[in-house]
Fold this sequence. Notes:
By secondary structure, the protein is an alpha/beta fold.
Amino acid sequence: MGLRVFDEQSNYVLFGDDSRIFLYENLGDSLRRFNSLEDSSELTRILSRVEIPVKKEVNLPEIRTLLREGPIGQLVLDIANDCNMRCDYCIYSDLYPNERKFQKALFMEEDILRKALHFYLNRAGAEPKITFYGGEPLINFPMIEKAVSVCRELTSRDVSFSVATNGVLLKNQALDFLMENDFFLLVSLDGPKEVNDRFRCFPDGSGTYDIITHNLERIRELDMQYYESNVSFNITLPDLDKTLEVFGFFESEEILSRNKCFPHRLVPTIALPSSLGWHGQSDELIEGYVQCVQSGKTVSEPLKGEFEPLLKWFRKRQNDRLSGATWPGGMCVPGLKKLYVDPKGEFFMCEGYNSHQAIGNVDEGLDVEKILRLVSTFTSIKNKLCSSCWAERLCYSCMASAKDGLNNEISVGGLSSFCPILKDNILKTLYIEGRLTTH
Ligand code: SF4
Ligand code: SF4
């Protein structure tokens, strides 16, 4: 098939393959299909109406009030800055010189845990959500047990617990406890044995696939219903030449095919050359997805995970004429949607920005003025970089995607290094939506 961009101007993009040409125009925020580039008079007529995108603007007094009193969505507790594995592409490996490194014994302790839970549960909405994160959180399993009992002391609300794990320690008492307390388990697994074990390995270089799949089988034996509803997979695709093989594996393996999957790529700074950009195997995935939807067949979990989050984002867009100024796309207010607490009790905005730009701590709470400065800086970055970009209305770039690999500030340079990936993903989404909705 081969999707190509024919023209990319400030407020529209013309794209498609040889048989279908699509126009996405910013003004009407709409998609139209043409039979060929020869339909130029109609194109010219439409493009003459395209206008300059709107300015990004935020209401700082309103955000200040929300930061002081508003509900906090999710708490992410980073309870262990260490791991029992050493994946080659890990964000804490030497590939990322500016990120934190695994440090032995930097585990969260009970006093920090209590303060973090106290702060969060005082500010959480009706349905508190707590995720345990690391490194590998299960190497500090006593803190998970402690957190559940402290939550029961502090609130009568139902708290939803989840853990992001490499799956190696999902066994014995830890597993029993997680299952009894209805934990959601996000397990990292990259595909069949030879694909997974190429990067996901122990410190001695040996692979992890056999242990993880053995643990998954055991959970299935214990409680199939729990397994299907509470276990999902985080799939990293470091080598896009393997994409079809990996998707096929998750679609066909009995122990994986009914569970949710979240495929993702490496960030540009460490990606293998073959893991960036539009790729022949992306076309096949798109075709497979479109054919399933059009023929009413069940869409496989990896294809859903690959395409549906962005399709949902696209479909909930504001597609009428926008007012003079809008919120900057995918930006959340740091600390409100999600609050990340590291083992020392420092607050950060999320897993993607978890060792620089602290936004408070368990003793002093949120640093409201620092967060407002970050929000203002990001808004001005978006205004500088994005006003001439056709993708501006649909772009989901957030502060973590603007992190500069050199000095860990948010910057125009940091955000622009992500633009090719953002645009690729938005184009794929537009193309799928075009295939599904135009006549
Ligand atoms: S399991 Fe996760 S935290 Fe551990 S080395 Fe691998 S990528 Fe890093
Ligand atoms: S972040 Fe990049 S891709 Fe997104 S709107 Fe701005 S310039 Fe375009």
